[in-house]
Amino acid sequence: MGKQFSELSSKHIEFIEQQKIYFVGTAAETGSVNLSPKGGDSLRVISSTKIAWLNLTGSGNESASHVLKNARMTIMFCAFEGSPLILRVYGQAEVLHSRDADWAQYSRLFPQSVAARQVFVLDIAMVQTSCGMAVPYFTYEDDRDDLAKWSEKRGSEGIEKYWLNKNQQSIDGFATEIVERSGITEAAS
User: Fold this and answer.
1) How far apart are CA 100 and CA 172, in angstroms?
2) Are 78 and 85 in contact (CB under 8 A)?
3) In angstroms, how far apart are the furthest CA atoms of the chain?
4) Most exposed: 48, 55, 105, 144, by fewest CB within 10 Å?
């Protein structure tokens, strides 16, 4: 049976810190629902009512476009080993880009990466746990380094070109504001 909480408990935080993967769900009022797997050293519990996560450059930029239209976000964690548990964190998110006032405060919490695209800050409205007894066991091997190699090879100028060409709109045509809020000039293309 699921249980609901108004904030993260110390037990919830300990569980989150042990996870190697998490999933982020966003949606605008219309269009596609997005669900993204995230990994690596990209999530921080700021407090019992706030989480921040680093969004690295990728093929889509759905979370940013959705949060600009509708700030709701869900982050889900699953136990793939040990006792079964699913933990969902619901709330309102803000997307930060490199020129935003709070960027430095949050981006410094994560390892530096040329692929750093945005930081999302989630103000938690509700935490829900459920059994997770049907989630299969999986064994963690290692983090992938493909994105790090790809982004380092491109360098910051190449990443900005990628943002210009691939990350300005969602699949539904919603703006991501990456160019304006990251200070990229069209000359970078």
Assistant:
1) 25
2) yes
3) 55
4) 144
